[in-house]
Design brief:
By secondary structure, this protein is an alpha/beta fold. It has 11 helices and 5 strands. Strands 1-2-3-5-4 form a 5-stranded mixed sheet. The structure holds zinc ion. Zinc ion (ZN) binds next to helix 6 and helix 7.
Length: 306
C-alpha cells in the first residue's frame, strides 16, 4: 500500500486542479508508519556501522568504501528526515459548486504533526471535492452549509476523529495506522453538512440515525464498491448506528424509497424529526422495515432451496 496506484479508483480525486495541487505529495502520504520504520532502520544501520567499526581495524583498501558507505547512510537518513513539503500550514483550498462558485473554504492544520502534512492536504482536497456532493445529497429547503470547514490533526488525541460544528479533529495516531481511511474523512465531513440542531419538544435527533447517515454517505456514495460489513440479522438492530444503520438505509432506499435519506434529512435539519416519519415515507414502521431487512439477510445466508 505504498503507492497511490494501489488505491481503488474511487479514492482518487476527481478535480484536476486539486489533484495537481497535491499530486507531488501523494507519494509520501500513503504509509506514514512504514516511512517512519524505514527511517528508524536507516538511522540504526548508520549509527551501528559508525560505532561498531573503527576504520583503523579495516584493511587499508576497505577504508575508503567504508567511509563512503557511512556517508551514504548518514545522508540518506538526513534526506528522509526532511519533513514533507509544508509550504503553508495551515493549508487552504476552496470547495466550488458545479458553476465554479466557491461554497466553502477548507482549511487543513497539521502544525502539531508535520509528518501528516501530505496526508492532510489530500484529505482537504477530498473534502473540497465532496463538500458540494454531500450538500446535494443532503439538501433541504432553505439550508446552506457552513462556509468554512477546518480539519485539525491532533498529536495527543485518542480514538479516531470528532466533529463539532464546522471543525473536524482527527487523531494523528489513528491516521498513521490507517493511511487508507479516506472514508473516515468523508464521514466527519458529513457531520459538518448535517448541521442538525437540537430537536424541538416532542421531536428527536437519534444518535444512531445521525451516525448511520454519515456512514451511509460514506458507504453508498463515496465507497460504493467497498465490501459491506456483515450484519447478523439475529443480533443487530437499526439502532446499532454506523455501518449497520448505513446498510439498513441503503437497503431501504433500494427496496422502498430511493429518496429516503434525503427525506429523513429534512426534518432532522429542522429539529422536527420523529421515528413515525419512516411510516409516512415508506408505508412501514422502522421496526417493520428492519424485520424485512433482517429476513432478506437471512435469506441470503441460507442455501438455495432451504
Ligand atoms: Zn460520526
Amino acid at each position: 500500500m505504498r503507492a497511490n496506484k494501489d488505491l481503488p479508483k474511487r479514492y482518487h480525486l476527481n478535480r484536476p486542479d486539486l489533484a495537481q495541487a497535491v499530486a507531488a505529495e501523494l507519494r509520501t502520504c500513503q504509509d506514514v508508519k512504514s516511512q517512519q520504520r524505514l527511517l528508524a532502520a536507516r538511522r540504526a544501520a548508520a549509527f551501528g556501522l559508525v560505532f561498531r567499526t573503527s576504520p583503523s581495524n579495516l584493511a587499508p583498501t576497505m577504508r575508503v568504501p567504508f567511509l563512503l558507505l557511512v556517508g551514504l547512510l548518514v545522508s540518506s537518513v538526513r534526506a528522509a528526515e526532511v519533513p514533507p513539503a509544508t509550504n503553508e500550514v495551515p493549508w487552504s483550498v476552496n470547495a466550488t459548486n458545479a458553476e465554479g462558485a466557491t461554497v466553502a473554504r477548507i482549511t487543513v492544520d497539521t502544525s502539531e504533526v508535520p509528518d501528516l502534512a501530505a496526508w492532510g492536504r489530500h484529505a482537504g482536497a477530498l473534502c473540497a471535492e465532496w463538500y458540494p456532493k454531500i450538500t446535494a445529497l443532503l439538501a433541504s429547503e432553505g439550508f446552506t452549509p457552513p462556509h468554512s470547514v477546518t480539519l485539525r490533526f491532533r498529536r495527543d488525541m485518542r480514538g479516531v476523529a470528532a466533529t463539532g460544528g464546522n471543525r473536524i479533529s482527527i487523531a494523528a495516531d489513528y491516521v498513521r495506522d490507517h493511511t487508507n481511511d479516506w472514508g473516515m474523512v468523508i464521514h466527519e465531513l458529513t457531520h459538518v453538512v448535517q448541521s442538525y440542531p437540537e430537536p424541538e419538544p416532542g421531536c428527536a435527533k437519534p444518535g444512531w440515525l445521525v451516525e448511520g447517515i454519515a456512514d451511509y454517505i460514506r458507504l453508498a456514495h463515496f465507497e460504493p464498491q467497498a465490501r459491506r460489513p456483515r450484519i447478523n440479522p439475529d443480533r443487530a438492530s437499526y439502532r446499532d448506528a454506523y455501518k449497520t444503520t448505513a446498510g439498513f438505509l441503503e437497503w431501504a432506499e433500494k427496496t422502498h424509497d430511493r429518496h429516503l435519506v434525503q427525506q429523513l434529512n429534512q426534518p432532522l435539519r429542522e429539529g422536527k424529526f420523529k421515528l413515525e416519519l419512516f411510516k409516512e415515507y415508506t408505508g412501514k414502521t422502522v421496526d417493520e422495515l428492519w424485520q424485512e431487512f433482517a429476513d432478506s439477510l437471512r435469506a441470503k445466508t441460507q442455501p438455495a432451496g432451504a
